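pinned: reference chain
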Amino acid sequence: MLNRIARGGSCAAAVVVLSLIFVSTKPVSAGPTEFWTRLGVNPHPSARVNAPMVYDSIGKNLVLFGGYDGFNYLNDTWIFNGKTWIQLNPPVSPPPRSASAMAFDFKTKQVVMFGGFNGSQYMGDTWLWDGAAQTWTQATPATNPTPVTLPMLFSDPLNGHVEMVGGYDGFLYQNITWKWTGSDWKKLFPQNGIWARGAAVVANDFAHRKVVIFGGLADVNPVNTWTWNGVTWTEESPSSQPPWSFYTPAAYDPRIGEVVMFSGSSGLNNTWAWDGSDWLTLSPSHSPIARDSQSLAYDYQTHQMIMFGGEDSNGLLDSTWEWVAIQ
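pinned: its structure tokens
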């Protein structure tokens, strides 16, 4: 496995109370036919880890940026249209980085990217992707969050603006919640704050108009589940949880009304789903081998959940997988 400094910039030891880590014994969810299938897509991005990927509602495709290929920090931009990967050549691109985060802002109709690590520096710049013009623009906010790697970005469940929490600044894991207003970052002061962490599992739970966060890296036990309703953070008490997961993406699947994650940071190849109150182990008929640091997003145009890249026990990956859920 790549060391954490190379792949994401986090070098602090994550102190975890192992006795609090527990694995689900709950029966698997029933209903749709579910499986992972590998797509034979060429060309495709090179093998890499920690490249953020998100659905762009304006371009109506998935957008992937940068990452780390084992030797270099990357700044290439790719889109996936449901059938093929296409490398774009925008006139301006963000500097190379790994472990940044992206989310789509439903108010401004742009993808927002923040943070990351370039091998020596924690990034604190904000970039906007225009899916119609297929261009990157560096934003110039009056207020900038602390430069971090491994932050968690998501869309506010109430107003659709991008928000951010956490990350690692080279010394400490963060727990500040920020809102992107369209031109500036605004620090939020929720009544309840999430425990500091970075590299956590995060996704919008559109069925319940909340955001769910699980696991991550931290100085204090991160093996817990939190939800954000646009106003405050709540620590949930699910009857079951995945094993400790980090460098693990997740995405909402409208076909089953649940958030789906493929857990690999514990050496397992389990597929999990968050149903709004509990974590369920799914039982796909076919699964990839265990991996972490992959990219994952749901394409609302083609109705596909796509996973790309990551790292397994043999090295970095350049394969494209689709999560199939047939009702």
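why pinned: The mean pLDDT is 92. DSSP finds one helix and 26 strands in the chain.
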